[in-house]
Amino acid sequence: MRGSCLMKKKVLVALGGNAILRHKEKGTAEEQLENVETACQHLVELIRDGYKLAITHGNGPQVGDILLKNERSKDILPPMPLDICGAQSQGMIGYMLQQSLRNEMKKANIDIPVVSVTTQTVVDQNDQAFHNPTKPIGPFYTAPESDRLKKEKGWSMIEDSGRGYRRVVPSPEPKTIMEKGIIKTLFRSNAIVIAAGGGGVPVILKENGSIKGVDAVIDKDLSAQIFASDIGAQVLLMLTDVEKISLNYRKPRQMDLNKITTKKARHYLQEGHFAPGSMAPKVKAAIKFVEAGGEKAIIASLETGRRALKGRAGTTISQA
Ligand code: ADP
Ligand code: MG
After folding, report:
1. Which residues line ligand 1 (CB under 6 A)?
2. DSSP 3-state assignment of 209?
3. Distance between terminal CA atoms of the chain?
4. Are 244 and 194 in a shared domain?
5. Which residue of 154, 211, 286, 316 has the smallest Cβ count within 10 Å?
6. Residues 209, 319: one domain?
7. What's the pLDDT tens digit per position in 246-284?
8. Could you give the number of structural domains in the chain?
9. Are residues 252 and 207 in the same domain?
10. Which atom, in ligand 1's list, is nearest to the CA of 278?
């Protein structure tokens, strides 16, 4: 049994925040648990297919809700900064995944330990992103609401891929994962490791070597690449709410892509086909992952992930 485990193909699955809390939903605990359960049913199918999994997840909708709660109750309780809200969301989503995954594995007679690691991701304090917020977080607003929030709270707002207006915060580039060593140890010991949730809590390293959380959000797909490369995964599977990546997305002459090289991907990225803060970081993560020695990166929907691993769905990005 041990021997066969060593042969298993290692897949880092990155679950979109929107795959856990859909933007038309209220976000009740029941809704989120149900969505996590559905996600875990798909993950168990991958385990049954013989893949060794590690998992990361987005937290955009969740951390947005936590921020809003903090904002609304600030007269009775001191609001927490973004880094602590991020850690809170990692704990919450990690817990739901740990529980659901065990429940779904039990139904399939599979017994693999699951652990989630509260993760700190190191960013450069001089990152240009701190002067240019790009990452959408929280609920969707209408155009007049967006204008009001800009004026009243000084928030930066953007139009998010035709779905409404959202607050944007700085999204610095992840450099390394603080918990890399223990994540590798846990993964090698055969556990399903859930880490770098929401991209990990962004932290900076001060000159004296101490760690400090910062007010930002890291794109989970960029951290997923570091996580995937750290554990030596062959496949980076990014599951989101579209089935494929497209050229001219939501425009006349939209063209869905099945399989592209990293060279083509970089070219399309430069042509501006992928929205910053949503699809662009996935494509960047895919290119980096393959160039760091990964076999392939795949972007697919939760429902088509399994077929995408076999090359029959989604968009595959590889060297050739
Ligand atoms: P996740 O939570 O899974 O990271 P995101 O919202 O960050 O989800 O990214 C997925 C979204 O990217 C899609 O829902 C789609 O609206 C948007 N998107 C932007 N550009 C493209 C493109 N060229 N092809 C496909 N989807 C795109
Ligand atoms: Mg995203």
Report:
1. 16-18, 58, 60, 161, 240-242, 245-246, 249, 273-275, 278-279
2. coil
3. 34
4. no
5. 154
6. no
7. 999 999 999 999 999 999 999 999 999 999 878 999 999
8. 2
9. no
10. 7
